[in-house]
Design a protein that fits this description.
Elements (H helix, E strand, L loop, with lengths): L1 H10 L5 H42 L8 E5 L2 E5 L1 H44 L11
Antiparallel strand pairs: 1-2
Helix pairs in contact: 2-3
Length: about 130
């Protein structure tokens, strides 16, 4: 009988306009966070590729040999020194982008945490705000 009373109590929760706004805001931030996580993974992979390219440059025997370096959609042949400079600049840029994305992720996580507190306080177990993969 207590379970039935609890079920009736949960089904009588009224969703106000403000509550709906919080739920919508949570959904937007959650979707953006997932997009940022995907972008972060892509940037980390790009950083790994740049590290691998730097390691491959160390194995080049002839330092005067032209080394193809991808700029946009084309390859440009450069010497060892120019290629190393380009790689270092690319690594710095990707590292900055990774830090910016991580900061945005933290901002979204903080917003989601605040919204979870508000929504769980009002709706309790009637609402599920947890990601399935986490």
């Amino acid at each position: 009988m207590a379970a039935v009373a609890q079920k009736n109590k949960d089904s009588e929760i009224h969703v106000t306009f403000e509550d709906q706004q919080h739920i919508n805001k949570f959904a937007r931030h959650n979707a953006k966070l997932q997009d940022l996580k995907d972008e972060l993974e892509a940037k980390k992979k790009e950083m790994q590729n740049l590290d691998d390219a730097g390691d491959d440059l160390l194995m080049v025997d002839d330092e005067s040999a032209p080394i193809p370096y991808m700029v946009g959609e084309v390859f440009v042949c450069m010497n060892m020194e120019e290629t190393n400079k380009m790689l270092e600049n690319a690594k710095e840029n990707v590292q900055k982008e990774i830090k910016n994305i991580e900061k945005l992720c933290d901002d979204h996580k903080h917003t989601l945490s605040d919204l979870k507190i508000k929504l769980y306080a009002k709706f309790g177990t009637s609402i599920n705000l947890e990601n399935e993969e986490e």
